Amino acid sequence: MSDSTAIAHATPNDPHAGGHEAHPAYLRHHFENTEQQADAAGFAMWIFLLTEVMFFGGLFTAYLIYRNWYYPAFVAGSHTLNIFEGSLNTLVLISSSFTMAMGVWCAETKRQKGLVWSLIATLILGLGFLGIKADEYHEKYVLHHIPGSTFSSQGFIHPSEEALKSGEKPLAADMAAKTEVYFSLYFAMTGMHALHMIIGIVLLCGMLWKATRGAYMDGNISFVENFGLYWHFVDIVWIFLFPLLYLISRHQ
Prior knowledge:
Elements: H1 3-8, H2 34-69, H3 71-78, H4 83-108, H5 112-142, H6 154-157, H7 161-165, H8 173-177, H9 179-211, H10 222-247
Helix pairs in contact: 2-3, 2-9, 2-10, 3-9, 4-5, 4-10, 5-9, 9-10
């Protein structure tokens, strides 16, 4: 049988009919195969994370420069942070990284129930982190440590008896005023981190909704993998924020 005869007798469902190979429905027309599509999505994700590294790197640099200029004010400001809640949030985020990694593994091995439960656990831990952070922000509101017209540095000029017993020393009025710079950077850095968490939770809810309906079980798991990278990156940012804001010079 000649080639032309073979093509003429090919059925419409023949994957090799007309010289075109069958491909999954999720393969975009401008990619040759699913591997190329996944590589392109992964590369784009890494480029995005690189821009995030530069963004947070700028905040970290600003913090270190101002900390060097106003060291006593920054030390005094850091001593007002709740070390227990900061440590608890660190544990919560590390746990969420584990559950997210389990979710990626479940997607790779086509375990739908495992994927759904892993995403639910990650969602709960993410919401828990934001709840703890909201409680910390409320504490700053009560102490008038939110930068702006209501900010008060009197607690650093005239520390309470409890603070004096714990080793705190009064700051001069001009240096105490610089604690507002510390809290400005504190809210900028933790606020941007919290915003990334909120964005992640919104995406996570959408992914969870799709997972409950059987999505990601056909081999198309690029979104799950790339979201996992995003979530781990947000967790890593906190791993740097926690010692920088809470721990450095804690006992001085």
